[in-house]
Amino acid sequence: MTQAHRPAEITLLAAQLDTTLEFFWERLGGLTDEEYLWEPGPGAWNLRPREQQRTSRGQGAGGWVWEFEPRDPRPAPLRTIAWLMWHLSEMCLGRADWTNGEHRVLPDDVPCAPTADEAVAQLKDAFARWRSVFDDLDPGEYEVVGRSQYPGGLDPDLPLRDILWWQNREIIHHTAEVGLLRDLYLWRR
Asked: How would you write the pLDDT of the chain (189 residues) with one tens digit per residue?
């Protein structure tokens, strides 16, 4: 679809996402493996080799797992850059698949990248797949309730334009957290 045929609000949401990602990629430059896995406090959720998982529920494809407590603890634990980048990847890959794909990708299907470089590559792919949703649909599809069927969210109950807005909000929120963690890492001494 051409941008001329895209609804104005979708064009604005796409521009917001593009700008967010432009700032994020610049902010992410030079990320090291040590910083990627650095835990900002005790009990921080992280990615770990499967044999070192410490929460009651760690999942993930491959030899590494993501940590998560299914009871939604309050307050939520701190999270590492690694955990946040994995979460952003699973969120974007899953929603893209449940909107324009085969409706199969779940969080446990998304590999936990053990290095910063692998995580950046995975996240670039995930963001590109999600970003394609803004361009690949017919204009009327953005109004369709349940156009995205991603499980565990409100996707089946909301028009796709609302899901695009929500996903942007999540991406902005979590990329800002990564930026803050990078600042804290630099100032930790």
From this structure: 555 588 999 999 999 999 999 999 999 999 999 999 999 999 899 998 876 655 444 555 557 888 776 667 788 889 999 999 999 999 999 999 999 999 999 998 999 999 999 999 999 999 999 999 999 999 999 999 999 999 988 999 999 999 999 999 999 999 999 999 999 999 987
Domains of the chain: 3-48+79-187 (1.20.120.450)
pTM of the full structure: 0.91
Q: What is the DSSP string of 90-126?
A: HHHHHHHHHHHS-S---GGGSB--SSHHHHHHHHHHH
Q: How many CA atoms lie within 13 A of 166 on its CB side?
A: 13
Q: How far apart are CA 114 and CA 91, in angstroms?
A: 18
* Residue 5, amino acid: H
Non-local (6+) Cβ contacts of 158 within 8 A are: 145, 146, 166
